[in-house]
Amino acid sequence: MRGQHDFAVFLEGTWRLLSGFEHGLGWAALRGADRGAETEIPGGKGIFLSINDEEFVNAATVTYALLTTACRLLRTRHLEPER
Hints:
Elements: H1 2-23, H2 26-31, E1 33-41, E2 44-51, H3 53-79
Antiparallel strand pairs: 1-2
């Protein structure tokens, strides 16, 4: 179903965003940060970024739900005896 595929893409993207926050990836910092003051430097600009708390909490909540669901599926499919 298309809706399920779209939701799976959303979950994977959110997982990658949280991973990017945790690993300090530039694209994640730009996606999930609030921009502050800009300063002129030779050859470009310096910019102050601070993580957007709401973005981080949303990403962490979705990722936690995804992880707990995956663990539940692992348990029911592989660790519990068949009845």
